[in-house]
Amino acid sequence: MDGVRPRIHPKNVAAARPEHPRAHGVGRPQLQGSILTGVLGALLALPGVVFAGFGLYLLILALASASGRREQPVVAAPANRLVVIVPAHNEEQLVARCVTSLLAQSYPRALYRVVVIADNCSDGTGSIAAAAGAEVMVRSEADALGKGRALRWATDQLLAAPDRPDAVVVVDADSVADPNLLSALEAELGRGHSVVQADYSVLTDELSSPRTQLVAAGFLLFHRVRFSGRARLGMSANLVGNGMLFSRAALEAHPWSAFSGVEDLQYSIELRLAGVGLRFAPQAFVSGPGPATRAGEVRQRLRWEGGRFHVVKTRLWVIVRTAIARRDPQLLDAALDLATPPLGLLSMATGAGLVVVAAAAALGLAPIWALIPWLVALTAIPAFVLIGLRAARAPRSMWTAVARAPFYLAWKLARYASLVSGFDPNRWDRSDRSNTSASRRVEIAGVPIDAVDMRAAIARVRGAIGAGRLFQVSTINLDFVVRAQTDPDVMRIFRRTGMNLADGSPVVWLGRLLGVEMPGRVAGADFVPAMIRDLAGSGARLFLLGGEGGVAAAAGERLGQLYPGIVIAGTYEPPRAAVEDMNNAEILARIAEAKADVLLVALGHPKQERWIDRHRDQLSVSVAIGVGCVLDLIAGRSRRAPRWMQIAGLEWLYRLAQEPHRLVRRYLTDAVWLVPIAAGVVRSRLAAPRAVDTA
């Protein structure tokens, strides 16, 4: 049998031979499935490529901003005659502060004028601006509202006058100009740049809550980081409506022609299409307030971002076609910058896209490589934020606030949805000033609290100076509220005080629990320096009463260094004694002799409030404020908690760590009282809110 080959039946051979997959069409569905998967993957990856492009563009700008050499301070001698125009519509609360900052410029006073446009005003904007030292132009054209029309009206008249300026600078009426603003802008004009944009940021006094910190971070990233990055790459900036300089030649060749709600962006596009470059001046600084309320922020965002979307829709392809026809990289950059979505929208769209593609890949509907561009975008966008904040030298508190960005983005999503219902690009909305003209006073456990922000509080103090009657201010924290529950005299004082500020985070929380829109905490340690800075140069006179060990004199000296325009009329530290046993006649005589307008009393609570109330009919000042330990902070005798702890409402914890023996009992007592106080607030809200409007 060894040489005999076994016979195999053909049927068995056929059964043993494997069949080719195509024999019965088995592989065709698999092939079709792989093609469909690839096509779907490409379709899902394509928007990711677009978003990755936007993210990488922003990241490149942040890297350029961070890596470029810092600009040198302005040293060239100024030579051009400037006119600073301040368009103002019903800005009586803030216009004097703006004018004061413009009249305190380092630029030679003989070379510039400050002109306020009282634009269709129904309040005292014009008279207040004139009293502050500005020239005033009055425009009464009710059928032609808006900042853009006011600018065109004013520039036409200024350029037609015999003494035409070499350049015009535009500053918003609610803003504060850095002392070197005009010098830095004019230096760029001297280098041959006909249109210049300053660095526009949010006032540091406004950074009292995570929301305002996030708004300020957005300003830094959009204005400082993107503009400086583009400048270092040789590209132009955009106008942002505040801190703008235009040479006379530029305005004569291209008169202001933008009258929408985003007139600055619209005019920027027209100038870029006309071949005019826009220079960013990193050494020129101007600061303005953020929205006073969340409702104001909604209106502002709808105006800015709705207007931007409208410009994208109507002008983007015009810019692209012109850039291609001219082979102009500057216009291509303008198109890319305009097409880049707002950072919040870009972040949300990237996150949503990544989730969709990841789900499709997990289900086998799309290849894994479709995730790559989305991951690139998801990496580039946070990198832009982190590198950008570092390049912009953002304060530590702003970094902490960025951690709350997801909650802010969820809120913004609803705002974007409202744009779908329609946007009127020609509608002009005045920026929110609701908290500067009126406030809500709400009672928390019987203690009246004024729901005002920093701007409104300062405006009320400024308005009280010279009013003829004492305006007492108290800064209320939870301990003050608790003491008022057991001390009828303290409760009586608080109920007759002119303004009670919400100094403590628990007070803000209780107000919100009652259903009142509390703008945020206005700490005395923030309010007093901000108020003094606002009053600097106005001629207001301050008297500092209280403290120990020379702290009042040291604080007065320090304030004089920080705010050279302020007048420290006198200081006095009385010996320790009960209110009725103090040398009150001598104290009152010293204050009267100093002719002070504002009295800061640092005797500790409730002694300082009792002293002011006891002598309210004898005091010669207009404003009296109990300031507690603020003089110690100003003099450098004590330190506040880090900014991130202040924003998080944890400043009490920092103070407890510093003075445990003095504060532990107080804080425990306050915590025990907080429960019934909060319960009472809830009952009040369920019954009937006790909020009333006050002037």
Q: Can you give me a brief rundown of this structure?
A:
The chain is α/β, with parallel strands linked by helices. It is built from 28 helices and 17 strands. The protein has three domains: 255 residues, Spore Coat Polysaccharide Biosynthesis Protein SpsA, Chain A (Alpha-Beta Complex); 60 residues, no CATH class; 212 residues, Rossmann fold.
Would you spell out the secondary-structure blueprint of this structure?
Layout: H1 10-16, H2 27-67, E1 82-88, H3 95-103, E2 112-119, H4 125-132, E3 135-139, H5 147-160, E4 167-170, E5 176-177, H6 181-190, E6 195-202, H7 210-232, E7 244-247, H8 248-253, H9 263-273, E8 279-288, H10 294-326, H11 329-339, H12 343-362, H13 372-391, H14 396-402, H15 405-420, H16 434-437, E9 439-444, E10 447-451, H17 454-464, E11 471-476, H18 478-486, H19 488-496, E12 499-502, H20 505-513, H21 524-535, E13 541-546, H22 551-562, E14 567-572, H23 584-594, E15 598-602, H24 607-614, E16 623-626, H25 630-635, H26 643-647, H27 651-658, H28 660-687, E17 692-694
Parallel strand pairs: 1-2, 1-4, 2-3, 6-8, 11-12, 11-16, 13-14, 13-15, 15-16
Antiparallel strand pairs: 4-7, 5-8, 6-7, 9-10, 9-17
Helix pairs in contact: 2-7, 2-12, 2-13, 3-4, 7-13, 7-14, 9-10, 10-11, 10-15, 12-13, 12-15, 17-21, 18-19, 27-28
Give an overview in words.
The chain has 695 residues and is α/β, with parallel strands linked by helices. Helix 2 (27-67) crosses helix 7, helix 7 crosses helix 13 and helix 12 packs antiparallel against helix 13 (372-391). The strands form three sheets. The chain has an eight-stranded mixed β-sheet with strand order 3-2-1-4-7-6-8-5, with helices on both faces. A six-stranded parallel β-sheet has the order 12-11-16-15-13-14, with helices on both faces. It is built from 28 helices and 17 strands. It has three domains: 86-340, Spore Coat Polysaccharide Biosynthesis Protein SpsA, Chain A, CATH 3.90.550.10; 344-403, no CATH class; 437-632 and 639-654, 3-Layer(aba) Sandwich (Rossmann fold), CATH 3.40.50. Residues 13-17, 20-26, 434-438 and 689-695 have low confidence and may be disordered.
